[in-house]
Amino acid sequence: MSNQIRCAHILVKNEATAQEVLAKLKTGESFAKLAEQYSLDGTRKRGGDLGFFGRGMMVKSFEEAAFKLNKGDISGVVKSEFGYHIIKRLE
Fold this sequence. Notes:
The chain is an alpha+beta fold. It has a single domain, classed as Chitinase A, domain 3, CATH 3.10.50. Helix content is 32%, strand content 32%. The protein is globular, with a radius of gyration of 12 Å.
């Protein structure tokens, strides 16, 4: 299990929205609440929680950013073919 991590993310359509969400996170707003409000995918109902995943299970740009985070860290804006992500490492 040690080669798996658990993350949450907020997925938005454009970089401007991603920067707006990131700014709100930096002022202390709740990651889960912002995920519910902004995220475009089904994880929004779980506060963005993606559960556990290992290497090779996510798109490359997302995976690279996620595995660099320490528990509790929040990434900058990460672009993928799905849009723009902000990732939080949960475990």
